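Recall that a protein's primary structure is simply its ordered list of amino acids. Everything else, from secondary elements to tertiary packing, is in principle encoded there. The following example makes that idea concrete.
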Amino acid sequence: MEMQGIKSIMKKSMLGIVAAAGIMFMSPLTASAHCDTMEGPTVADGFKAMETNNVNYVLKWVQPKYEKEITEKFNLSMKVKDLSPSAKVLAEQYFFSELVRVHRAGENAPFDGLKPYGTPIDERVKAADKSIEVGNLSPMEGLIEQEKMPELKERFERVMALKNFDVNNVEAGREYIEAYVMFFKFAEGEEEHHGAVAGHGTADGHGIANAHGSMHETHETMHDQHK
C-alpha cells in the first residue's frame, strides 16, 4: 500500500512537470543566477545526495524550518528511483525541483521552474564559479569595476575559508552558502557594500528582488534525462 501511494504521488508530480514543460517551450529562458538550473550547484548537490543516499549534501541549501519537508521529499524520491529507469528520472526531477523551490523560498525569491541544461548564464556568474574552482579571482578580471575588487576579494576569501566543511556538518555548510551567495551577488553587481545583505534566507535570491510566489506552484522542468 505504501508503494502504491508513492507511485500515485509521483505520477501526479510527473503530470505537472510535463504540463509546465510545454509552457516553458513557448518562452525564452535566461538566468543571471544558476541555482535554479540543472547545471547549477544546488542540483549538483542533489545528485550527490541521491547517489550517496545522504540528504546532508542538500540541507545546507535550505533553512532549518524546511529541513523536515526536504528530508521527507528526499526519502520519497529514494524509495521510487530504483523501480525503473524512468522512475529514476522522475524521482530526480521531482526532488531537484522541490529542493530549488524551497531554497528560493528561503531567499524570498520567486521560483518559476527548474531550468534545463544549456540555459544561458551571466558571464559574471560563470567567472565567479571558475574563481572558486581555481582558487583566485583571475577569471573575474575585466568583468567588474576595479574599485569594487577589494570588496569582491574580501567576500571571495571568506568563501574560500569556509569551503572545506564536513558534509555532515549542516550548520557549517549553511555558513558557507551564506558567504557563497554574498560573493555571487556582489560579483553580479547587485550590492555595493556589506550592509546590503541581511544574511542568507533574508536577502533576495541571487539578485532577484521579487517576493516568492505560491509555495504550491506546479513544479516545472524541461529536461527529461540525467546527463
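The chain has two domains: 2-106, 123-196. Residues 2-106 form one domain.
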